[in-house]
Amino acid sequence: MTTETPDAAASSPDALESAGDRRAITLARLAIGLVQGLALYGLMRATEGEASWSRLNPDLFAPAVLVALFLPAVLLSGVGKLRLPVYLGWSLVAAALLALLAWHDVARQAGVTREATFPVFVFGAAALFIAHHLIVPADRSRRLIAPYPAYFDAAWMSGVQLVLSLAFAGAFWLLLFLGAELFRVIGLTFLGELMREGWFALPATGLAFAAAVELTDVRDSLIRGVRTVALTLLSWLLLVLTGLVAAFLIALPFTGLEGLWSTGRATSLVLAAAAVLIVLINAAYQDGQTAPPRVLQLAARVAALLLTPLIAIAAWGLHLRTGQYGLTPDRIIALACVVVGAAHAAGYGYAALSTLRPGSRWMQPLEAANLVGAALALTAILALFTPVADPTRLAVADQVHRLETGVTAPDRFDYAFLRFDSGRAGMAALQALARSSDPRIAGPAAATLALAAPVPPSPALATPQFEPATPGAAIPDGLAQPVTADDPRYGCLDAGACVVLGRDLDGDGRDEALIATSGIIHLMTRDVSDTWRPAGMFYPPCNSPNDVDLREILRRGELTLDPTPRWPALRSAGGSLPFTPGPCPAAAAR
Q1: How far apart are the C-alpha atoms of 174 and 518, rounded to whole Å?
Q2: pLDDT (tens digit per residue) in 188-230
Q3: Which residues contact 295 (CB under 8 A, 6 or more apart)?
Q4: pLDDT digits (tens, 9 = 90+) for 363-387
Q5: CB 433 within 8 A of CB 442
Q6: pTM of structure
Q7: Which of 63, 378, 496, 566 sits 20 to 30 Å CA-CA off 286?
């Protein structure tokens, strides 16, 4: 099923084969790992203190972090595989791109505290991986566009190598922890203390990772064997996911899309399913030199055709949400993912149908679709995380346009999004709105500008439903007002859940309210502003049977009072219910 593609560098006249060259590569990789660890330690120290360098210079600190984290991966992977001029040039370009992404991510933010956000790390790493594995095969084959097997070999080999190297670094630390525990039991704590020091931990981790990259690179056959096993397992999982996605799409005409839309994450869910399908289809196709078993060929064709309806559903869901609420940064990124997914779906669908022609090679157009999709994804990432197509700037422009054209009413506009969630573009737009000639816009915009922090959202309100203890009796005035979740009345939202009785328990001439659930009777009193407040509760003794429904006690009117300083105990035929400001554990569970 699997055809091993000979390493393109093996036949290259520039391949580094001598023992001296091998030692040079080894030393270079170890040096890169050590320098990375030291650089990360220096950046860690730069975050210490209120007036730290990271706080004073975020426009420099964030690029330094991104470069220190990800550039060594390019250096480790490229050494010995790229010609020296290409290696040096690509390393400089990669460093510049990483620094640009991080700088823009921080520069677009407003406020004193600015730091790189999580998406720039994820998409920066993805862009670097894609670009590196477009460059390496092309350089090794001395062609602008390399043969497809070279791309497949480089990308999947690097993926396996990355996983194994991370696992090796993790195992290295597990051994250190084990050794530290062994020394600790005999009274020696030096190793544990050493491991907590950043100047040791970070360089040691960098060296361990670099050593793993070198070891896996030397044992090329080992990586190929692991890759073969991984691809074989993934390719058979394609059968499972294809069946699940097909069943999902078949069921949609009968169930409708309402359940999918109600999740609030329909687009991301469907895009994730499409992305996994793409990975599994490639696991079955591999380098395209040898077709897999017929059942996998059929599954790959069906899966390739299923991508189109999945992407269509994602696009439709995104269209609906955008039409209702406008663009947001997340929706713009999702739109880019839909475009990349549509390119793959079109290419994969054509590849599946092309195999119906006599004499055609199995799914061969998939190769061009992968290259186009990779280039499109790289372009999209670079556009989204640079000023070219900054999602925040585009979202702000769209939201303000909806406000100014009347699509969004001024009283329903999210001014806080501009003030706190959209950086400098949002602040500039909010300042412009504060100068609007429309007072319905200028007033809220100016008020939001004056806020130092977001106003917490108002807690959700719900109106309780009460059953009077005596049929036909009135519910005490104001008791059935909307309440929040921290009010005992919030547990009375369902009809019949609570029975209420008004009675003057403390002799002050004003009725209190007894609200009975199945296991507790809550006491509500009025304060000086005539607002109902919880005062405590009555509950059976903690060791009493729990089959007594206290609502029935109120319905039967069996209550009498035990004289106490203020809140008397309640007596019924079943016993006494003492007052307490808080429940016992048994009552709380009831």
Answers
A1: 53
A2: 999 999 999 999 999 999 999 999 999 988 877 778 888 889 9
A3: 239
A4: 899 999 999 999 999 999 999 999 9
A5: yes
A6: 0.76
A7: 378
